[in-house]
Write a structure and sequence with these properties.
Elements: H1 3-6, H2 8-17, E1 34-37, E2 47-52, E3 59-66, E4 69-74, E5 76-77, E6 93-96, E7 106-114, E8 117-126, E9 129-138, E10 150-153, E11 163-169, E12 175-180, E13 191-196, E14 204-211, E15 221-227, E16 232-238, E17 249-255, E18 266-269, E19 279-285, E20 291-296, E21 298-299, E22 302-303, E23 307-312, H3 315-318, E24 324-326, E25 336-343, E26 346-353, E27 363-369, H4 373-379, H5 385-388, E28 392-394, E29 401-405, E30 413-419, E31 425-432, E32 436-440, E33 447-454, E34 459-466
Parallel strand pairs: 5-9
Antiparallel strand pairs: 1-2, 2-3, 3-4, 6-7, 7-8, 8-9, 10-11, 11-12, 12-13, 14-15, 15-16, 16-17, 18-19, 19-20, 20-23, 21-22, 24-25, 25-26, 26-27, 28-29, 29-32, 30-31, 30-33, 33-34
């Protein structure tokens, strides 16, 4: 890191002295929405942007690197005319160079604007002014089916990070990968680049990662950890040939690997510093008191067995944003990653740097005054990692007997509704927020079903299979 970043003690002291001049912010509202880019257009991917969706009117927050320190500021950002609610943006934000100006300084989101009506909106950055434009509209497209499986990349190999790919989860475990390609002013109709008839996209643990896994010089591949119901985990990699994704290779397979402990924190980068973004890293929750960073390095056959590159405290629990790969040391390599941790009323941007197949001690590159979780719950708007990740149904598939982890919200009771493959309601009940609901639906026929959880501030769906 730059020498000024290394002066952590002085920086923390200065931040502590400034607490009285800043109000508490609800940083829980940026869960899942953090992206890295070059938002100050200095030619370096050393800035971070996040939509704060804690209130009905979302706010765009920027952290830019200035003289070795991250500075927080509210961006000048407008909302699009078809915008419905802040929660629709959660976990559906990517950064890219959609206008082909040479800077990864624009934002894009797939979000719902009505029942099965979806907009792809791009916020173009012009000297700090983020102006929305609708670049695509789908009249029969459910944006919620792309939850946490949206990435930006150069999938058509035109030299610009201006395309978007997303998994779309259909019934009966059928999955399609759609790709929207930019022409600098709009997205064309999305092409179907891959179809998996026996692939359940809800089994992808963590955020889908885009990288250069075949080392061809383009960030045009995708990787995901796929969690099977019997505790077996695979890492699938999709490579592209400019107009479709090839059938995914299995780059890692292991039983007893609990991908759920990754908490949604899976990223791609050049952590072995070979010049290609062909590694995966993840913050792994060992238990309530310890965390590890595990890294999947690429070899000739795929990924090597994951290796522990760092061991620490409970960062996997307190990291309330998805991790991002950044270049805060300005060495032109994606060998660092950053996440937000919230402990009490202390919010910090924490950065890990890869050196010689290990991560150095994390550095706090920014510190802010956060709203506590207790106060956040009182005021509403809290969205934790568990909520951002959707509904946990296990085992899945099952024999009709299964459990549902109900996310914590500010609602006393939420509605839990089950639908069959035809969309007909088969059961509806109320449950307390935060509980684990044990279900016995063994009287139903084998097939695909959907559970929907709704409340004043929550509307989530999850597919599951009864065998």
């Amino acid at each position: 890191m730059k020498s000024t970043l290394l002066k952590k003690a002085l920086f923390i002291a200065a931040a502590s002295l400034s607490f009285n001049s800043y109000s508490q912010n609800n940083y829980y509202g940026v869960t899942g929405n953090m992206v890295a880019g070059d938002f100050d257009q200095d030619g370096l991917t050393d800035d971070i942007a996040a939509f704060n969706t804690a209130t009905e009117i979302p706010k765009l927050t920027l952290w830019t690197l200035d003289n070795g320190k991250m500075q927080e500021q509210d961006a000048n950002c407008q909302l699009s005319f078809d915008f419905l609610g802040a929660k629709s943006l959660n976990a559906k934000i990517v950064a890219g160079d959609f206008d082909n100006d040479g800077f990864i300084d624009d934002l894009a989101s797939i979000y719902e604007i009505g029942v099965d009506k979806t907009s792809v909106t791009v916020w173009l950055n012009n000297k700090g002014q983020f102006t929305p434009q609708r670049w695509w509209y789908g009249a029969d497209f459910d944006a919620n089916q792309t939850y946490q499986t949206m990435v930006a990349g150069d999938f058509d190999n035109d030299g610009f990070m201006d395309d978007i790919a997303a998994f779309y989860n259909y019934e009966m475990k059928a999955t399609k990968v759609y790709v929207w390609m930019s022409d600098k002013t709009q997205f064309g109709w999305p092409g179907t680049w891959w179809i998996g008839k026996d692939f359940d996209a809800t089994r992808i643990q963590g955020t889908l990662a885009a990288g250069d896994f075949d080392c061809d010089g383009f960030k045009d591949d995708m990787a995901a950890l796929y969690d099977y119901s019997d505790g077996f985990c695979k890492a699938f990699v999709w490579t592209t040939d400019k107009n479709k994704f090839n059938w995914p290779y299995t780059w890692f397979a292991q039983s007893g690997f609990d991908a759920g402990k990754l908490k949604g924190n899976v990223i791609a980068g050049d952590f072995d510093q070979n010049g290609f973004d062909d590694n995966l890293a993840a913050l792994y929750q060992n238990n309530e008191n310890s965390s590890s960073i595990i890294v999947f390095k690429r070899d000739n056959k795929g990924f090597e067995l994951p290796d522990t590159w760092w061991y620490g405290a409970n960062e996997a629990i307190t990291a309330n944003m998805r991790l991002v790969t950044a270049d805060l040391n300005n060495n032109a390599k994606n060998d660092q990653f950053t996440g937000l941790t919230i402990t009490g009323t202390n919010a910090t941007l924490t950065t890990w740097t890869a050196e010689n197949n290990r991560f150095t001690l994390p550095e706090e590159v920014w510190q802010g005054f956060a709203l506590s979780l207790e106060d956040c719950n009182k005021q509403g708007g809290c969205i934790t990692n568990d909520l951002a990740g959707g509904i946990n149904v296990y085992p899945n598939p099952n024999n009709g007997q299964f459990n549902i982890e109900i996310p914590k919200t500010n609602d006393e009771l939420i509605q839990v509704t089950f639908y069959n493959v035809l969309g007909s309601q088969v059961l509806s009940l109320q449950a307390q927020t935060g509980q684990i609901l044990s279900m016995d639906m063994s009287n139903l026929k084998a097939g695909s079903y959907v559970v929907q959880i709704t409340g004043n501030e929550i509307n989530l769906k999850q597919n599951f299979i009864i065998q």
